[in-house]
Amino acid sequence: MGRMRRLSYANVTSTIALVCAAAGGTAAAVSGINADKVDGVNAAKIDYVVNDQPPPQKFKTILDQGGLRLRGRCVEQSGTDFVVKAISKVDDAEIQVSLITNDIGPSADLEAAIDRNFDKGDELEVTALHVGGQGVAHLAFSTEAGSHVTATFQIDVGSILGEAGPKRCLAGGTALHVPG
User: Fold this and answer.
1) CB within 8 A of 13, min separation 6: which ones?
2) For the chain, which terminus, N or C, has the lower number of CB atoms within 10 Å?
3) Do the domain assignments include residue 170?
4) What pTM was estimated for this model as a whole?
5) For the chain, what is the domain count?
6) 20 in a domain, yes or no?
7) What is the DSSP letter of 145?
8) Is the CB of residue 44 less than 8 Å from the CB of residue 38?
9) For residue range 17-59, what is the model confidence (pLDDT) as tens digits?
10) Phi, psi of 164 (to 5 degrees)
11) How are strands ordered across the β-sheet holding 123-130?
Protein backbone atom coordinates (compact mmCIF):
# COMPACT_ATOMS: atom_id res chain seq x y z
CA MET A 1 0.00 0.00 0.00
CA GLY A 2 1.23 3.44 -0.85
CA ARG A 3 1.65 6.25 1.61
CA MET A 4 -1.17 8.84 1.64
CA ARG A 5 -0.14 12.44 1.09
CA ARG A 6 -1.84 15.26 2.91
CA LEU A 7 -3.20 18.21 0.97
CA SER A 8 -1.64 21.47 1.94
CA TYR A 9 -2.54 25.04 1.04
CA ALA A 10 0.64 25.31 -1.07
CA ASN A 11 -0.19 22.11 -2.99
CA VAL A 12 -3.75 23.22 -3.70
CA THR A 13 -2.83 26.74 -4.85
CA SER A 14 0.04 25.53 -7.03
CA THR A 15 -2.28 22.97 -8.64
CA ILE A 16 -4.89 25.66 -9.32
CA ALA A 17 -2.22 27.93 -10.82
CA LEU A 18 -1.00 25.08 -13.05
CA VAL A 19 -4.54 24.33 -14.26
CA CYS A 20 -5.18 28.02 -14.99
CA ALA A 21 -1.87 28.32 -16.89
CA ALA A 22 -2.56 25.15 -18.89
CA ALA A 23 -6.01 26.46 -19.79
CA GLY A 24 -4.52 29.67 -21.15
CA GLY A 25 -5.55 31.78 -18.17
CA THR A 26 -3.38 33.90 -15.94
CA ALA A 27 -2.39 32.61 -12.53
CA ALA A 28 -1.52 35.02 -9.75
CA ALA A 29 0.78 34.04 -6.94
CA VAL A 30 -0.94 33.98 -3.58
CA SER A 31 1.29 34.95 -0.71
CA GLY A 32 -1.40 35.09 1.96
CA ILE A 33 -5.07 35.53 2.61
CA ASN A 34 -6.59 38.44 4.54
CA ALA A 35 -9.30 36.75 6.57
CA ASP A 36 -10.54 40.16 7.78
CA LYS A 37 -11.91 41.04 4.33
CA VAL A 38 -13.87 38.80 1.96
CA ASP A 39 -15.56 40.01 -1.21
CA GLY A 40 -15.30 43.64 -0.06
CA VAL A 41 -16.87 42.94 3.34
CA ASN A 42 -14.79 43.64 6.45
CA ALA A 43 -15.12 41.25 9.37
CA ALA A 44 -14.31 42.25 12.94
CA LYS A 45 -14.18 40.35 16.20
CA ILE A 46 -15.92 41.72 19.28
CA ASP A 47 -13.95 40.52 22.29
CA TYR A 48 -14.30 42.54 25.49
CA VAL A 49 -13.60 40.65 28.71
CA VAL A 50 -13.06 42.24 32.12
CA ASN A 51 -11.79 40.14 34.99
CA ASP A 52 -10.22 42.86 37.13
CA GLN A 53 -11.11 43.36 40.77
CA PRO A 54 -12.56 46.02 40.91
CA PRO A 55 -13.45 46.53 37.24
CA PRO A 56 -12.26 49.59 35.33
CA GLN A 57 -14.48 52.67 35.50
CA LYS A 58 -13.83 54.09 32.00
CA PHE A 59 -15.55 53.18 28.74
CA LYS A 60 -13.44 51.18 26.30
CA THR A 61 -13.95 50.93 22.53
CA ILE A 62 -14.92 47.38 21.61
CA LEU A 63 -15.77 48.00 17.92
CA ASP A 64 -15.01 50.83 15.49
CA GLN A 65 -16.27 50.15 11.96
CA GLY A 66 -17.97 52.13 9.18
CA GLY A 67 -18.93 55.18 11.23
CA LEU A 68 -20.13 53.18 14.25
CA ARG A 69 -18.29 52.89 17.54
CA LEU A 70 -19.34 50.50 20.31
CA ARG A 71 -18.04 51.23 23.79
CA GLY A 72 -18.37 49.12 26.92
CA ARG A 73 -17.90 49.75 30.63
CA CYS A 74 -17.93 47.27 33.48
CA VAL A 75 -18.36 48.97 36.86
CA GLU A 76 -18.89 48.00 40.48
CA GLN A 77 -22.01 49.74 41.87
CA SER A 78 -23.83 47.60 44.42
CA GLY A 79 -22.82 44.64 42.28
CA THR A 80 -21.34 44.58 38.80
CA ASP A 81 -23.03 46.57 36.04
CA PHE A 82 -22.14 46.34 32.35
CA VAL A 83 -23.11 49.09 29.91
CA VAL A 84 -22.63 48.93 26.13
CA LYS A 85 -23.45 51.96 24.03
CA ALA A 86 -23.35 52.76 20.31
CA ILE A 87 -21.99 56.11 19.12
CA SER A 88 -22.32 57.54 15.62
CA LYS A 89 -19.23 59.05 14.02
CA VAL A 90 -21.22 60.42 11.04
CA ASP A 91 -24.39 62.44 10.44
CA ASP A 92 -27.61 61.07 8.94
CA ALA A 93 -27.10 57.44 9.97
CA GLU A 94 -29.70 54.93 11.11
CA ILE A 95 -29.35 52.32 13.82
CA GLN A 96 -31.55 49.43 14.93
CA VAL A 97 -30.86 47.26 17.96
CA SER A 98 -32.63 44.24 19.37
CA LEU A 99 -31.59 42.64 22.62
CA ILE A 100 -32.80 39.41 24.17
CA THR A 101 -31.89 39.33 27.85
CA ASN A 102 -32.29 37.17 30.89
CA ASP A 103 -31.33 39.78 33.48
CA ILE A 104 -31.74 38.09 36.91
CA GLY A 105 -34.60 35.68 36.61
CA PRO A 106 -35.86 32.85 34.42
CA SER A 107 -37.84 34.88 31.85
CA ALA A 108 -36.33 36.35 28.71
CA ASP A 109 -37.06 39.94 27.72
CA LEU A 110 -36.91 41.42 24.23
CA GLU A 111 -35.87 45.05 23.96
CA ALA A 112 -35.63 47.00 20.72
CA ALA A 113 -34.56 50.49 19.74
CA ILE A 114 -34.33 52.42 16.50
CA ASP A 115 -32.94 55.86 15.68
CA ARG A 116 -33.48 57.01 12.10
CA ASN A 117 -31.56 60.24 12.68
CA PHE A 118 -28.44 58.94 14.42
CA ASP A 119 -26.07 61.89 13.97
CA LYS A 120 -22.39 62.36 14.79
CA GLY A 121 -21.90 62.19 18.57
CA ASP A 122 -25.35 60.69 19.24
CA GLU A 123 -25.36 57.76 21.66
CA LEU A 124 -27.73 54.82 22.02
CA GLU A 125 -27.52 52.51 25.00
CA VAL A 126 -27.43 48.98 23.64
CA THR A 127 -27.67 47.39 27.06
CA ALA A 128 -27.23 47.98 30.76
CA LEU A 129 -27.09 44.62 32.53
CA HIS A 130 -26.56 43.82 36.20
CA VAL A 131 -24.68 40.94 37.80
CA GLY A 132 -26.22 37.65 36.70
CA GLY A 133 -27.59 39.23 33.52
CA GLN A 134 -26.94 37.81 30.10
CA GLY A 135 -28.20 38.32 26.60
CA VAL A 136 -27.63 38.50 22.87
CA ALA A 137 -27.55 41.80 20.96
CA HIS A 138 -28.25 42.22 17.24
CA LEU A 139 -27.37 45.58 15.74
CA ALA A 140 -27.70 47.11 12.25
CA PHE A 141 -26.19 50.50 11.35
CA SER A 142 -26.38 52.26 7.98
CA THR A 143 -25.05 55.57 6.72
CA GLU A 144 -26.32 57.87 4.01
CA ALA A 145 -23.12 57.10 2.05
CA GLY A 146 -24.10 53.42 1.85
CA SER A 147 -21.90 51.96 4.60
CA HIS A 148 -23.56 49.13 6.54
CA VAL A 149 -22.46 47.48 9.78
CA THR A 150 -24.17 44.49 11.37
CA ALA A 151 -23.10 42.96 14.67
CA THR A 152 -24.21 40.03 16.79
CA PHE A 153 -22.69 39.52 20.20
CA GLN A 154 -23.21 37.82 23.53
CA ILE A 155 -23.28 39.88 26.72
CA ASP A 156 -22.76 38.34 30.14
CA VAL A 157 -22.21 39.82 33.60
CA GLY A 158 -20.92 38.00 36.66
CA SER A 159 -18.89 34.86 37.21
CA ILE A 160 -18.81 33.56 33.65
CA LEU A 161 -16.80 31.33 31.31
CA GLY A 162 -16.93 28.36 33.66
CA GLU A 163 -13.58 26.86 34.54
CA ALA A 164 -11.69 29.67 32.79
CA GLY A 165 -12.23 31.55 36.02
CA PRO A 166 -14.58 34.30 37.08
CA LYS A 167 -14.97 37.10 34.56
CA ARG A 168 -16.80 40.27 35.53
CA CYS A 169 -18.11 41.30 32.09
CA LEU A 170 -18.07 39.81 28.61
CA ALA A 171 -19.12 41.02 25.16
CA GLY A 172 -18.13 38.60 22.41
CA GLY A 173 -19.20 38.10 18.84
CA THR A 174 -18.71 39.33 15.29
CA ALA A 175 -19.39 42.37 13.14
CA LEU A 176 -19.53 42.75 9.38
CA HIS A 177 -18.97 46.07 7.58
CA VAL A 178 -19.85 46.76 3.96
CA PRO A 179 -18.11 50.04 3.02
CA GLY A 180 -20.18 52.69 1.26
Assistant:
1) 30
2) N
3) yes
4) 0.72
5) 1
6) no
7) T
8) no
9) 444 444 444 333 333 444 566 677 899 999 998 876 666 678 9
10) -70, -10
11) 60-65, 68-76, 80-88, 123-130
